[in-house]
Amino acid sequence: MKYKVPVIPGDGIGPEIVAEGQKVAEAAGEKHGFDLEWIDYSLGADHYLKTGELVDEDTLKELSNYRGIYLGSIGDPRVKPGVLEKGVLLAMRFYFDQYVNLRPVKLLEGVWTPLKDKGPKDIDFTVVRENTEDFYIGIGSRSKAGTSRSEFEVKRNLYSVKFGLDVESDSEEIAYQIGMVSKEGTRRVIKYAFDLAMVRRKHLSSVDKANVLSDIYGFWREEFESIAAGYPEVETDYNFVDAITMWFVKNPEWFDVVVAPNMFGDIITDLGAMIQGGLGLAPGANINPEGTSMFEPIHGSAPKYKGMNKVNPIATIWAGAMLLEHLGERAASEDVVRAIETNIKRGEVRTYDMGGRNTTSEVGDDIAAIVLGKI
Ligand code: IPM
Ligand code: MN
Q1: How many Å lie between the centroid of ligand 2 and the Cα of residue 372?
Q2: Cβ of 71 below 6 Å from ligand 1
Q3: Is there an atom of ligand 1 within 6 Å of 298 CB?
Q4: Substitution candidate for ligand 1 out of 266, 268, 271, 279 with most atoms within 8 A of CB
């Protein structure tokens, strides 16, 4: 069996960490009898600075022939903040309609957590973050005193929406950003979360801010309620986003699957990463169950560590395990996660963030060797 997988190493530390993820995935392939053929795509800052292009339609079309893309990280200080993040990363999430952003928050055996008296049994949940709507639709502007009119459009595979906005203001200048959720977009991600809860511990927590942003998140809550009626076995609860940050710290054991709108999902998963041991350990997957998905660490491109062979590759290796599972290689995927756990438990080969002195590639070598049973 052979899988063709596009790889986008990206910016900053991206190339270094992705190389280790490839190494470990290949080791799992060797053990489980499959081959990986990587197809390199050089998207990101260098490509943009050289060509002025973020990601073109032809590349996107080509990438959509594959089930899973392996991504390092996007973002570079030479480019204005947001240009690459929106123009490459979000552009791909939207183009491929990767409406689920799956972020496991799992404390592995042997990892230190800042939460006192909590261990691996207590910290094991998954956040399902909606990934195509909410305040991420990119609609907003500024306008100076006076009157003005703007037209905006949201184009998705599911639907398209046009907004026309008349602004009349005597403030010196205003800025605004519009958040939007659709019935289709909300229901599909909540259903995904319920299905996931059904194969886990049958508990789903919804995140909103229906007490204040009641149009957008009151709608989210209503859809959640209506879908919950079809899953009587799943226990549910609602959480305001401010409160859930408190519960993640105080009682993480309460959670099994958490479903959140895009913006809140972004925020709470950085907190999730911290309680599972840090950003160096937190993987993510952008999923379109019927199309092209994309696997990446949830951390950024850490430009100050670029080329130093210093950062922790575990989040990316773990994202690689999620990619293998998505390709149907579940046993290989589980082996990779177990090997990560063994590496951590032994504590002999680790990067600085975990109190070690080893390099990025030494950690990758160690985990690959564990997968192959060589050490
Ligand atoms: C993430 C990141 C991105 C996001 C940025 C880089 C666009 O923070 O994947 O969580 O906000 O989704
Ligand atoms: Mn984020």
Answers
A1: 33
A2: no
A3: yes
A4: 266
Per-residue pLDDT of the chain (375 residues; tens, 9 = 90+): 999 999 999 999 999 999 999 999 999 999 999 999 999 999 999 999 999 999 999 999 999 999 999 999 999 999 999 999 999 999 999 999 999 999 999 999 999 999 999 999 999 999 999 999 999 999 999 999 999 999 999 999 899 999 999 999 999 999 999 999 999 999 999 999 999 999 999 999 999 999 999 999 999 999 999 999 999 999 999 999 999 999 999 999 999 999 999 999 999 999 999 999 999 999 999 999 999 999 999 999 999 999 999 999 999 999 999 999 999 999 999 999 999 999 999 999 999 999 999 999 999 999 999 999 998
For residues 128 and 188, give the distance between their C-alpha atoms in angstroms, rounded to a whole number: 11
Provide the residue ranges of all domains of the chain, joining segments of one domain with +: 1-108+278-375, 113-133+181-276, 137-178
* Cβ of residue 89 lying under 6 Å from some atom of ligand 1: yes
Q: Which of 90, 134, 269, 286 has most ligand 1 atoms within 8 Å of CB, for mutation?
A: 90
Both tokens of residue 58?
A: 């032809």
Taking the C-alpha atoms of residue 162 and residue 139, their distance in angstroms, rounded to an integer, is 10
Cβ atoms within 10 A of the Cβ of 141, count?
A: 14
Residue nearest to atom 10 of ligand 1 (CA): 266
| Residue 90 CB less than 6 A away from ligand 1 | yes
Nearest by Cα to 322 from 72, 102, 123: 102
CA of 67 to the centre of ligand 1 (A): 21
Ligand 2: centre distance to CA 300 (Å) = 8
Quickly tell me which residue has 């169950």 as its tokens.
289
Q: For 113-133+181-276, CATH number?
A: 3.90.190
Distances (CA, A) of 83 to 15, 49, 96, 262: 20, 12, 19, 19
The residues, any chain, with a CB within 8 Å of residue 340's CB and separated by 6 or more, are 108, 314, 317, 318, 321, 367
C-alpha–C-alpha distance, residues 143 and 169, integer Å:
8
Question: What is the dotted CATH code of the domain comprising 1-108+278-375?
Answer: 3.40.718.10
